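Form 7-S
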Amino acid sequence: MSSEGAQQVEAGGGAAEGRTVRVVLVDDHRMFRTGVQAEIGETGRTGVEVVGEAADVDQAVTVITATRPEVVLLDVHLPGGGGVEVLRRSAAMMTDAERPVRFLALSVSDAAEDVIGVIRGGARGYVTKTITGTDLVNAVFRVSDGDAVFSPRLAGFVLDAFASTDAPPVDEDLDRLTQREREVLRLIARGYAYKEIAKQLFISVKTVESHVSAVLRKLQLSNRHELTRWAAARRLI
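Output:
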């Protein structure tokens, strides 16, 4: 996590309020979960108690049902159907009047379709993984209180999407790609090297190469320069 942070998040929250928010971490990268736990999970300092973790959709639903946390930090891209599927299967818990479980998306992706998808699924906010630990704690407390929290540029996606009555057009080419392939595509198009992409997505360089090859094949492109032009034409960069 870096200092870019979610500027929409205001100061406040944490242990200073004298209360604890119970949180479940849902992300398919163990190292990232470990980092978040170390950053925000010291309950005496932050007021956040991490009561469970999950790496895929089935695990997430099981852990959330068993622990009934106040807030779930949810990655968008998960094995088993993604964050949207977790939200769908947790609908009854989200609408529980007495003990609602609220969801805050925490993802490397800043793509409009990812943001809009999970918000329509019921998440109370969306922040990127560049957020600082302090801001993330504040975001957790705000979401537990029923507020909506977004990283700065992402709020515009939501406002634009819900201000329009028209459904977004279907891009058949983009639909051929898996969620992970879309992530790699955007980073390649933004000029990231394979090693940088591997580090950011917590995958190996060989896996990045495999995803790039799959993207080029599915889109019938020859190289990363054509891929960049393709992504720019669709405003994916």
